[in-house]
Write a structure and sequence with these properties.
The protein is 24% helix and 41% strand. The chain has 3 helices and 7 strands; from the N terminus they run βαββββββαα. The longest helix has 20 residues. The protein starts with a strand and ends in an 18-residue tail after the last helix.
Length: 155
């Protein structure tokens, strides 16, 4: 399994960044290649994205969610992936967003793309686009403050 870890400092309050990250259906606005994210219930999501020139769809489950601290997920169908996003307060109007991804490239195109660092560049760009998106708005498009207790294998 391939791994990616990065973080970015964002000039908004921690709760603003966290609340925006809970708005999964907004992800296509700042995540490259993501065509849609549909939330089935508080813990299950259906993703549709373009990867290596083809459209793929998979389901993911949020396996832990703690307001203003972390959201962890893992795929339950389709491409194998999991991850966690963590939020650290750096001041009243500043926070750090940490992203950790693990994914299993499928097929020759994805393996070549992984070798060339495509996923890492895309994820790094997604963090930068999230920063721009939330800083220019200065407020979240919504937020879900519920808790999902840790289950299964999350980091």
């Amino acid at each position: 399994m391939a791994k990616f870890t990065d973080s970015i400092d964002v000039e908004v309050p921690l709760s603003t960044a966290y609340n925006q990250w809970t708005q999964f259906e907004e992800f296509p606005r700042f995540m490259e290649g993501v065509q849609s994210v549909r939330q089935l219930d508080e813990a299950r999501l259906v993703w549709k994205a373009e990867i290596g020139g083809k459209t793929v769809e998979w389901q993911a489950k949020i396996v832990e969610q703690v307001p203003d601290l972390r959201i962890a997920w893992r795929s339950i169908s389709g491409a194998k992936n999991s991850g966690v996003v963590r939020f650290d307060r750096l001041g009243d109007e500043r926070c750090r967003v940490h992203l950790e991804l693990e994914y299993e490239p499928e097929g020759a195109i994805e393996n070549v793309g992984d070798f060339l660092g495509v996923v890492e560049r895309r994820a790094k760009g997604d963090l930068e686009r999230f920063k721009t998106f939330i800083e220019h708005r200065s407020h979240e498009t919504g937020g879900w403050r519920g808790t999902i207790p840790k289950s299964g294998s999350a980091r």
